[in-house]
Amino acid sequence: MIQFFVTDLDNTLLNDQKEINPQDQLALEKLMAAGVKICLASGRSDHEIFSVMSHLEAKYHRISQNGAYVRTPEGVTLRSTVFEGDLAKRIYESAEEKNLFGFIATEDRILVTNRNHPSIPQIEEGLKIQFEEHPGALHEIGQQLQPSKLCYFGTEDQLHDLQSHIQHHFPNEVDSYISDVHCVDLMPKHVSKGTALAYLLDHLQIQPDSVACAGDSYNDISMFELIPHSFVMKHANPEVKAHAKREIQSVSEAVEWILQYNKTCKI
User: Fold this and answer.
1) C-alpha span between 10 and 13 (Å, rounded)
2) Which residues share a beta bridge with 224?
3) pLDDT tens digit string along 148-173?
4) Same structural domain for residues 110 and 238?
5) Domain, as residue range, for 133
6) Do 184 and 91 sit in the same domain of this protein?
7) Does the reported pTM lie above 0.85?
8) Are residues 181 and 97 part of one domain?
9) CA-CA distance, 24 to 13, in Å (whole number)?
């Protein structure tokens, strides 16, 4: 039986307007009523996931910033991972060679060194986030600031070029994921949704074959590789689809499959 369901947010549970479709919200309510626990897993910060959870008027487990943080429905932190020392500063300075706009994410802040970049209003509107200007951020990394993610925006070619550049200069210190069409996340090594989910399942004493997950992007692949019952959104890149078991058009479609599967298991 499926005891646990994990869903990505952007372009999976959330639509293009960063809203939850009513049928998906109803599906999650049905799943909870059937006794299946739920986890929201995203590249977004925990306070952003909490906002989505509040809209759903429910309490779920949550994995934020691609696995940097793992929290219970009550908000208890089970795991947190940040860049060691001044590593985030060195990565940020190296990435500046590519002239892409990026931000620094800590546990509860989304920082930019200045707000002069012309793409900021569009990004803030598109992602429904607000950047905090902090000119001294780089100097505080490893001291007052403990970054858990660096995020950059650009074309697909620009992002792949940045990934290659960072992997060349920091081969054993950084993992990177295309988390949205025009966005790449740089993470501490071995931090992913998959490693965070494995940690959470061990804590809950739930086996991977009793879990289902849904997602649409490269940062979801680590979950697909861990979980046998994986669902990928129909609009996903073919390379991402290749790692998932089933294709869906909505979270509610995955939920219906889970409910039917669990009925079959009871027979």
Assistant:
1) 6
2) none
3) 999 999 999 999 999 999 999 999 99
4) no
5) 87-188
6) yes
7) yes
8) yes
9) 7
